[in-house]
Design goal:
- The protein is mainly α and 112 residues long.
- The chain has a domain of 76 residues: Multidrug-efflux Transporter Regulator, Chain: A, Domain 2, CATH 1.10.1660.10.
- It contains 6 helices and 2 strands.
- It has a two-stranded antiparallel sheet.
- Strand 1 and strand 2 form a beta hairpin.
- The longest helix is centred in the last third of the chain and has 23 residues.
- The chain is globular, with a radius of gyration of 15 Å.
- The termini are far apart.
- 12% of the residues are buried.
- GO terms for molecular function: DNA binding; DNA-binding transcription factor activity.
- InterPro entries: DNA-bd_dom_put_sf (IPR009061), MerR-type_HTH_dom (IPR000551), MerR_fam (IPR047057).
- It holds the Pfam family MerR_1.
- Keywords: DNA-binding.
- This is Transcriptional regulator.
């Protein structure tokens, strides 16, 4: 299946609502992190709506991982990012996959 691409693979920009849904957080938290972490700079259209790239989403995932999963403070997360302590892409993909599995198992557990 060489043409096995989803609509998500074809998109260049994502709205703040789409990003919030991907990360399972509120849009206000994304705006807050945008203000707290200077390296997260989404594009804005003429109306001021944020348009996030895949790179922006990856940056937000990194912040999410450091703050929510590893328990870093915001200052600690800033220092970790500045020090180049980024998780490698392969490791982050495994983490993302495991989080999806966890969410799915939690959903199944609630239904039982």
């Amino acid at each position: 299946m060489p043409n096995d691409t989803s609509d998500d693979d074809l998109k260049r920009y994502y709205s703040i609502g789409e990003v919030a849904k991907k990360l399972d957080v509120n849009t206000s938290l994304i705006r807050f992190w945008e203000n707290e972490f200077s390296h997260i700079k989404p594009n804005k259209n003429s109306r001021g709506d944020r348009r996030f790239t895949k790179e922006n989403i990856q940056q937000l995932r990194e912040v999410y991982h450091l703050v929510r999963e590893r328990g870093f403070t915001l200052d600690g997360a800033r220092k970790e990012i500045a020090a180049g302590g980024k998780t490698d892409n392969g490791k982050q993909q495994v983490i993302d996959s495991l989080l999806k599995v966890r969410r799915r198992l939690e959903e199944l557990q609630k239904k039982a």
